[in-house]
Amino acid sequence: MLKPSTHGKLRVVATSPTGQASLHRGRRTARPSGDDRELAILVTAEKLLEDRPLADISVDDLAKGAGISRPTFYFYFPSKEAVLLTLLDRVVTEADTALENLIQAPNADRDTMWRTGINVFFETFGSHKAVTRAGQAARATSGEVRHLWSTFMQKWISYTAEVIATERDRGAAPVTVPALELATALNLMNERTLFASFAAEQPCVPEAHVLDTLVHIWVSSIYGEGR
């Protein structure tokens, strides 16, 4: 091995097999951090949800897939339901962050503006269909899931209503039904229509056409003259 000499130069020093073994013993294999284990649980859960509902997934399944023990699982999550809540929160936050970024750089063209906004939800939830389906099912039994979804839906509805009101104030859209009520109906329609398409329910709008269909309805509803 190389060591500095007393004259500032490097000199070669022989290392015995025993010394080499000692060096190897001193190098510890990197152990997964807490964040790594938590992420492994989340990745495992999303993968398993692609094939079966949460009710058919056990804590042992999640622990085994994450490469940890059952007791270690409970160090990170109190239940498998808590894992789903975290997954859903991550997906919803991803969509919300993307929408916030769009708000910072609005598009002047109305059709493109609405298409880009709706596409945020189409792309985000469409990229996490298993979590989306499981989250929708859990709303019937989980108050925490209902609260999470309701909180963000209210935020998105309020934002939509503000944009509709702005379009009306500048004369680009007619004043028809109240902006908040129109925004509520449109967002609830998006939710149901997108989820049906992602799950390939019957009936549903084919996933390849659902974005175009929703944009058409939004633009027609917001800018069309009322009867």
Automatic annotation (TrEMBL):
InterPro entries: EthR_C, Homeodomain-like_sf, HTH-type_TetR-like_transc_reg, HTH_TetR, Tet_transcr_reg_TetR-rel_C_sf. Keywords: DNA-binding, Repressor, Transcription, Transcription regulation. It comes from the Bacteria. Residues 58-77 bind DNA. GO terms for biological process: negative regulation of DNA-templated transcription. Pfam families: EthR_C, TetR_N. The keyword RNA-binding does not apply. Residues 35-95 form the HTH tetR-type domain. The keyword Repressor applies. Involved in the repression of the monooxygenase EthA which is responsible of the formation of the active metabolite of ethionamide (ETH). Homodimer. This is HTH-type transcriptional regulator EthR. It comes from Mycobacterium innocens. The lineage of its organism: Bacteria, Bacillati, Actinomycetota, Actinomycetes, Mycobacteriales.
